[in-house]
Design a protein that fits this description.
Number of strands: 37
Shape: globular
Low-confidence stretches: 221-227
Helix content: 25-40%
Largest sheet: 10 strands, mixed
Radius of gyration: 34 Å
Mean pLDDT: 91
Length: 949
């Protein structure tokens, strides 16, 4: 009895069959048999199978079905019947097994006694230049693990639905009568669902076992590349219905929900992508098939997928094609806004209508996406091509650009141009004016004519694909769009062009649709000899001269990447720039890692300018340089000019840290202003740093030892920050924070005048004089994912409704977070997070609401009320890195834990000024004793006074 039987199925694949079989014969586990089953091929597949059997009579057997079964299920069933091995595997004729697959899976099965052993499948895209590869749901196979039931790992059941990357105990297949559905596509899904649920034990191994060869350009498409065929979709839905029934019979509701989520995220999306290019009859049939099945999807599944996936599924179920087709554009191009949106009852919805359906309102509500807060230049708008006509040498185009929520005003000055650019970067582009631009409410209509023959001059060979964009200027602000083709017919003959290199390969340009549905053009040839010329060029490119040229190009590209890599930039800093002479009277300023022009570095810089000092100011920036002063030299953080400036500067001034691995030269003085007193544990007081190795701690200490002066605003800073950073006494500069000078002066001015001056910011924000201004400024939260989205811990709409006639709430998120406010609260709740400098906002606020943010120490200098909304106090204090003191015992204002208590506190806000006056004075004495209003002046006089003109 062989250890493993591998069933290889084949249909009209004579050329690739031997490679698949050989991958089994070459296995390091020798006791393996091959059972080939031909699905009644019309080519030589069965003859090739018989030849392989004759060549390897002891190891290969070949069988043929009497008639074609129409899918891969029945050939596998026949194969199972002919196997004699203890274990069974499946292999398709166009794929191969990894060399050690059978050995690794057999060993795992024997060791664990599992019915199924599953390994990692790798998809190889054979049509790509470097055979792009992606691992099939690799997170499932990060380590070896054995499951007593698939219910222990629902993701395995839901996501890895392949039958081919697995090894099955043959007795297990026979005892449970496990067979593939006959004559149906997606037979794997049903078979593996049955197998998973029947298995008493399943083992996953992290080894690669199966190479799935993807041939997207094949003449005969595989099932996965024929999704546009309606039969394909019918079979997918039928298989899903059967699996749903299987799960329902076993009462596995959570697994059914997980499978519903996968259907919305994956299965449905695969077919939706084709809809914009299909006719009305196809769409109608597709919707008819989908409606019933989508009706059985759990409503909770819509909440667990991306909003646009849920939106498309809902609109499909409603057969709302006018809104669905644009939504699919966003499904394909995730950053694109393809709908005009609609505002209803203060919320933003993907489209108008469906407001009478509570479930639909929930799905279509996109308020949290923040579209309504973005300016036009931050939006990627849908641009639907409505007319395409080629005539002679020109192409005439028209379209309409989506205008969401009227972001393009009716009276806006509009101008635009079409840009044809080679897809390969760094090559040329050509522009044509847009002749007509007309505001039409929800859209902007445009028309243009491009004389491609006269103006477009491609190089040829290297720039065969040309993308088309429309740049629209709205009152001088530019947004760029791509032209979505959808069902617009690209009519006309290819236009003649004159490539600069040669016309033997291409002499015309023809339109085509890109993979993402956008208009593009492709160089083509009407020369009868072009195919022969292309063949010669391809042979040259693939031959020795081409190989040498490509090798040289790749080496140059790799060298450029290497030179600009982080490690080499650090080397350049130490070995090149640090050998240059120090530039006297040069200061490099940086605030919050270059993200802002703010804080104490700004205060010191502005004091130096006020005193008229003669020096060169260099500011680091990591984002837009827009808010930075015009009279300085700007360098992008981590760029070579940045590193050169740091290496030659006489002074460094920042509030966080310059790159840790840069050694400060002895001739350079580093003034570390820091960015706030500490409530939470810092530096080496953090558990994570205490747990580091000695080497890691030493590296961290070296970066801290660069500080020549460290600004302190109280002895609390000395006991906490200075100790946590292991700073020497001589490093400490007890002068206060320069950023707080303005706050101290504001308090003194208010006391002198007997009234508060609001200044220009209130008018700029449109705040009425009779409204009390509250500022909500929380600390940094990791929650929110990659984009730093922070969810407010209270309902801002409830706040606005309850207190909008009395308060204006300013919201200032941490600079690493962001918030989205619904339009219902406009004017009553204002997001001021984008402002670089928080000091003017603090001056404006009549009261502060915070949690654990160091802004509490700064705001207390104004002697105005503070409220501490610590809704996650236990988690923050006890499960986080810990705190230096008990906030609840020392807070100079009420500490609340629930939203209701928070609102009750706001009702009595006026009385808190007197009630907590003594606590505020004590708080300032403890945490701000050196903030006297002259910190910037003191720093400048100590270090820069000699630079006076």
């Amino acid at each position: 009895m062989p250890d493993v039987s591998v069933v290889v199925i084949v249909y009209n694949d004579a050329d690739r069959l031997p490679t698949a079989v050989q991958s089994v014969l070459d296995q390091t586990l020798r006791d393996v048999e091959v059972v080939i089953v031909d699905d009644c091929s019309t080519d030589r597949s069965f003859a090739v199978a018989q030849e392989l059997e004759a060549t390897h009579p002891e190891r290969v057997r070949a069988f043929q079905l009497p008639e074609n079964s129409g899918a891969g299920g029945e050939p596998r069933n026949v194969g199972i019947g002919h196997t004699t091995g203890k274990y069974v595997m499946f292999l398709d004729s166009d794929d191969v097994l990894e060399l050690n697959a059978c050995r690794n899976m057999l060993e795992a099965a024997e060791e664990t006694g599992s019915d199924i052993v599953s390994g990692l499948c790798v998809r190889l895209h054979k049509d790509t230049r470097n055979q792009k590869r992606d691992e099939w749901y690799a997170w499932l196979y990060s380590t070896t693990r054995t499951l007593e039931s698939v219910t222990e790992l629902p993701d395995l059941f839901v996501w890895d639905t392949l039958s081919t990357n697995k090894c099955y105990r043959r007795e297990f297949l026979v005892e449970n009568n496990l067979r593939f559905p006959k004559g149906m596509f997606y037979e794997d899904l049903m078979f593996i669902a049955d197998a998973y649920l029947a298995a008493r034990r399943i083992t996953l191994i992290p080894n690669q076992v199966y190479f799935w060869h993807v041939h997207e350009q094949a003449t005969v498409k595989s099932v996965t590349n024929r999704r546009h065929e309606m039969t394909n979709y019918e079979h997918r839905l039928e298989i899903h219905r059967r699996i749903d029934a299987l799960l329902a019979a076993r009462g596995l509701t959570e697994m059914k929900l997980a499978k519903d989520v996968k259907f919305l995220k994956h299965d449905l999306v695969l077919h939706l992508r084709d809809l914009p290019f299909r006719d009305e009859s196809y769409r109608s049939e597709f919707a008819e098939l989908s409606t019933e099945y989508l009706g059985g999807i759990a409503p909770e599944a819509y909440e667990r997928v991306q909003p646009i996936q849920a939106i498309c599924a809902y609109l499909l179920q409603q057969s709302d094609w006018d809104n669905l087709i644009p939504a699919v554009d966003t499904l394909i191009n995730r950053d694109k806004l393809s709908s005009p949106l609609a505002e209803h009852d203060g919320r933003i919805y993907w489209c108008d209508g469906h407001f009478d359906d509570e479930f639909g309102r929930g799905v279509l509500d996109v308020t949290d996406a923040g579209y309504h807060e973005k300016p036009v230049n931050k939006l990627f708008l849908r641009n639907q091509l409505t007319r395409f006509h080629e005539s002679g040498r020109t192409v005439s185009l028209a379209g309409r650009i989506t205008n969401p929520l009227g972001i393009i005003p009716a009276g806006a000055r509009l101008s635009g141009e079409l840009e044809f650019s080679a897809r390969r970067r760094s090559l040329q582009s050509f522009r044509f004016p847009v002749r007509v631009l007309r505001h039409e409410g929800d859209t902007v209509h445009w028309e243009a004519v491009a004389d491609l023959t006269a103006k477009l001059r491609p190089l040829g060979i290297v720039d065969t694909i040309w993308d088309v964009r429309l740049a629209l200027d709205v009152d001088g602000v530019r947004t760029t769009t791509r032209l979505t083709v959808a069902d617009t017919e690209l009519s006309g003959a290819p236009l003649p062009v004159r490539p600069r290199l040669t016309r033997m390969v291409a002499d015309h340009i023809a339109p085509h649709v890109s993979a993402r549905g956008h208009l593009a053009f492709r160089l083509v040839s009407e020369n009868r000899n072009s195919e022969r010329v292309q063949e010669l060029i391809a042979r040259g490119v693939q031959g020795k001269p081409g190989a040498l040229a490509k090798t040289g190009y790749r080496k140059a590209k790799a060298l450029r990447k290497k030179v600009t890599s982080g490690d080499n930039k650090i080397r350049a800093y130490h070995e090149v720039f640090s050998r240059l002479p120090i530039k006297k009277r040069t200061v490099v300023f940086e605030s919050h890692l270059g993200k802002q022009y703010s804080d104490s570095p700004r205060a010191i810089y502005e004091e130096m300018r006020r005193q008229g000092l003669d020096f060169e100011a260099i500011w680091s920036h990591s984002g837009s340089p827009k808010e930075f002063p015009k009279d300085v030299t700007l360098v992008r953080r981590w760029s070579l000019p940045y590193l050169k400036a740091l290496a030659q500067a006489e002074f460094w001034v920042d509030n966080q840290s310059y790159p840790l691995k840069l050694t400060k030269r002895p001739e350079t003085t580093y003034l570390q202003t820091w960015h706030g007193s500490a409530l939470k544990n810092m530096g080496f007081d953090q558990p994570a740093l205490k747990a580091q190795t000695r080497q890691q701690q030493a590296e961290q200490q070296r970066s801290l030892d660069r500080f020549d002066r460290f600004l302190c605003r109280s002895e609390h800073d000395v006991r906490t920050l200075a100790k946590a950073f292991r700073l020497k006494e001589k490093t400490l500069l007890r002068v206060g924070y320069p950023r707080n000078d303005a706050l101290v002066r504001a308090r003194l001015r208010e006391a002198e005048l007997g009234r508060r001056e609001r200044g220009e910011l209130a008018a700029e924000l449109g705040i009425p004089d009779d409204k009390t201004v509250l500022l909500y400024a929380p600390t940094f939260r990791k929650a929110g994912g990659r984009h730093g989205r922070f969810t407010l811990p209270f309902d801002v709409e409830r706040f606005a409704e309850q207190f909008g006639d009395r308060y204006v709430l300013l919201v200032r998120s941490h600079y690493l977070n962001h918030v989205v406010l619904p339009p219902t609260v406009e004017g009553r709740v204002i997001d001021v997070s984008a402002r670089h400098d928080v000091t003017p906002v603090l001056e404006l606020a009549d009261g502060l609401i915070t949690d654990y943010s160091s802004v509490m120490f700064d705001y207390a200098l104004l002697d105005r009320p503070l409220v501490f909304f610590t809704y996650d106090y236990d988690e923050y204090v006890h499960e986080g890195r810990g705190t230096y003191f008990d906030l609840q015992a020392h807070a100079p204002g009420p500490v609340v834990r629930t939203e209701d208590d928070f609102y009750e506190t706001l009702k009595s806000f006026d009385t808190q000024a007197l009630e907590y006056a003594a606590a505020r004075r004590e708080f300032v004495a403890t945490f701000g004793e050196y903030d006297r209003g002259d910190a910037a002046q003191s720093v400048v006089e100590q270090f820069f006074a000699q630079w006076k003109r």
